[in-house]
């Protein structure tokens, strides 16, 4: 299917899900790579305390805080 035809179907409100390969979808510049970081035990306790307070996993707090710091550094 050509892009024009796809766009037309979308613009007309047709369900286009059957034309998408969702399993192959990727977010540009958002691919992930696993890394290991060692933290002192006191940091882990404080991270867990804050994670419980916010109702999110520890990893989420770490990601958000690192992202905030990196954005400020730019």
Description:
- This protein has 74 residues and is mainly alpha-helical.
- It has one domain (3-73).
- The chain has helices spanning 3-11, 41-54, 58-73.
- Helix 2 packs across helix 3 (58-73).
- The radius of gyration is 20 Å and the shape is elongated.
- The chain starts with a helix and ends with a helix.
- The mean pLDDT is 92.
Explain the layout of strands and helices.
Layout: H1 3-11, H2 41-54, H3 58-73
Helix pairs in contact: 2-3
Features:
single chain, 74 residues, mainly alpha
Briefly, what is this?
Helix content is 53%, strand content 0%.
**What overall geometry do the principal axes of the alpha carbons give?**
elongated
Proportion of β residues? under 5%
Per DSSP, the total helix count is: 3
Largest sheet: none
Termini separation comes to 41 Å
Structural class: mainly alpha
Based on DSSP secondary structure assignment, what is the total number of beta strands? Answer: 0
Helix/strand order? HHH
Output mean pLDDT: 92
From the alpha carbons, calculate the radius of gyration and give it in angstroms.
20 Å
| Residue windows where pLDDT falls under 50 for at least 5 positions | none
Number of discrete domains: 1
Residues in helices, as a percent range: 40-55%
């Amino acid at each position: 299917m050509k892009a024009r035809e796809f766009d037309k179907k979308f613009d007309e409100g047709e369900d286009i899900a059957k034309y998408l390969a969702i399993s192959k979808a990727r977010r540009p510049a958002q691919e992930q790579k696993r890394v290991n970081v060692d933290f002192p035990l006191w940091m882990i306790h404080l991270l867990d305390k804050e994670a419980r307070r916010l109702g999110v996993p520890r990893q989420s707090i770490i990601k958000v805080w690192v992202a905030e710091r990196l954005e400020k550094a730019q």
